[in-house]
Amino acid sequence: MNDNISGWNTWLTAFDDWxxxxxxxxxxLMTGLMTACNAPDExxxxxxxxxxxxxxxPEPALTxxxxxxxxxxxxxxxxxxxxxxxxxxxxxxxxxYERVIALKQWANGFMTGFGITDCGLTSEENxxxxxxxxIGAIRLEDDEDFEGGEESYLYIYEFARMVPVSFAxxxxxxxxxxxxxxxxxxxxxxTKELQAEGKLxxxxxxxxxxxxxxxxx
Length: 217
Description:
9 helices; single chain; 217 residues; mainly alpha; 51% helix; 0% strand
């Protein structure tokens, strides 16, 4: 699948002016959230990113994110369509290093996105997240070869691709009900804004990548 068909170029364009994290990580975060929640509108997406302390998304990026989230939920809900889900990574014309790093970023984004859904894990799901965390913990220098080469990359790509397919069977809930933004009116000020005003509300609990706690940076 080339970069135009996969949507890679579309995402690059939409997120051109926003550089907090990579588009692969955003796509992973969106996917992780959409395995347990219904697709929210642009206002709710903006609130999620604010509460995660990201810079505001440009309008094209926010629109694309909302549209892609809706498509992802629709795809993952269908037993047959779900198997055609693909993480957002560059195509095989890019260097292997680029693709591995993008998949690593997608994996970390997925764990963050699923982590803020407050959902419990089955033992099988816990094991899958533990393995996905190993992808998220990959360390490579710019000039370093990925051990196992293309064959190993394809193996971990296929594993990562199937994680959302396996996670998407649970009953979905509205994003506005997750603890990260629960109780906040859509026009409510963010924690950061309230703290800046000196009101110092109880801090939001950090989004902890529980799968990486045994693999510190």
